[in-house]
Amino acid sequence: MTATILPNPKQLKALIELSTSAEHVFVTGAGGFLGKAICKMLRSVDIKVTGFARGNYPELELMGVEMIPGDICDFNTLKTAMQGCDLVFHVASKAGVWGSKSDYYRPNVDGAKNIIQACNTLNIKHLVYTSTPSVTFDGIDEAGIDETQPYAKTFLNYYGESKALAEQMILSANSGQLKTVALRPHLIWGPEDPHLVPRVIERAKKGRLKLLGKTDKLVDTIYVDNAAYAHILAGVNIGRDNAECAGKSYFISNDQPITMATMLNNILACVDLPPVTKRIPTSLAYGVGALLEWSYHLIDKKEEPMMTRFVARQLSTSHYFNIDAAKKDLGYQPLVSIEQGMKALKASLLEQKN
User: What is the pLDDT of residue 303?
Assistant: First the structure.
């Protein structure tokens, strides 16, 4: 695994406090981008970690993570894997912008039900859930919103809809027996990012990367180690007798809103690609997305369309959040700035190239 900027004294302090309340931590989606970062932090202070994922991850096993293969929709396998754990980070989910309702509901909604049931059956008392700001997004600007923003009334894809249902279910499960909390990181990125970074670079190389609309809107992003650190802090807080975060959701970010153009061009600069300057009207992108969605459904094509209504709205609206609640209740402050993170990303991409 590529070296990261951390450890940091604040992160180490949080991890040490966590180790006093959680002897054995369970991480779903341990093989994913964020899941790996959480596992790495936990193992840095020798906390016992069991990881749950569908694939094989020898890298995690070398860290000392006990990896158990399985599907979160298989309750019996999940329950067996969770035995002996006292804190759960439920990170696993199906992300993306394209797919059928069952593609998303089965892992995201049914999976959450299984996690809650297993926690209650095994008397596990603490659950930290990885949600998403997409639970509030209904296609319009989100400029500095906080957790008082209601869930979206209309969703443009099944990902946001399924995650909203799962988040509500998990927060509703908060009780004296099981304390729960949900975190909403936005646009996680950093070294070894398998999603945003390679997609941006690939589209730029093919000449398919474009900006939407006449003006650039501000967006929040979060460096992967900051997202993992926020989860650690939530694990610390949820383990306290007077847990302020119990039953609540929190937006988390780098607290550095930037334009989407700046973010994309920062990534491109890491591999010495020219900045993106071409623009297309938002209305055109939305219309193309609607047409492609209709035609793909008509012929039952499984691949993701080049454009969807959700992506058109996502790339042409503001997405930045007031994270005062996370600062107050969790003590969260980003440890790695965007500038520091981009340096680490550039170094990792150069290492991969060589």
Answer: 80
Q: DSSP string spanning 56-88?
A: --HHHHHHT-EEEE--TT-HHHHHHHHTT-SEE
DSSP structural state of residue 106: I
Per-residue pLDDT of 60-90, as tens digits, reads 999 999 999 999 999 999 999 999 999 999 9
Catalogue the active-site residues: 159
pLDDT in tens, 181-237: 999 999 999 999 998 899 899 989 988 888 888 888 999 999 999 999 999 999 999
Residue 167 has pLDDT above 50, yes or no: yes
| Cis peptide upstream of residue 7 (ω within 30 degrees of 0) | yes
Is the pLDDT confidence value at 99 over 50?
yes
Structural class in CATH, domain 9-186+223-254+321-340: alpha beta
Query: Hey, what amino acid is at 282?
Result: T
Q: Is the pLDDT of residue 4 over 60?
A: no
Transcribe 314-337 into DSSP letters.
HTTS-EEE--HHIIIII----SS-
Among 169, 236, 302, 224, residue whose Cα is nearest residue 32: 224
**134 DSSP 8-state letter:** G
Across 28-51, average pLDDT: 96
Query: Phi then psi for 80, rounded to 5 degrees?
Result: -60, -40
**Contacting residues for 111 by C-beta, under 8 A, at least 6 apart:** 28, 72, 73, 90, 92, 93, 166
Instruction: Please give the structure tokens belonging to residue 327.
Output: 């600062």
Q: Are strands 248-252 and 179-185 parallel, antiparallel or unpaired?
A: parallel
**Residue written as tokens 């279910």?**
169
Q: What angle do CA 326, 329, 334 make, to 5 degrees?
A: 40
Average pLDDT, the chain: 92
Q: Where are the alpha helices (DSSP H) in the chain?
A: 9-21, 33-43, 58-63, 75-82, 101-104, 111-122, 158-172, 196-205, 224-238, 260-270, 282-298, 309-314, 324-325, 338-353
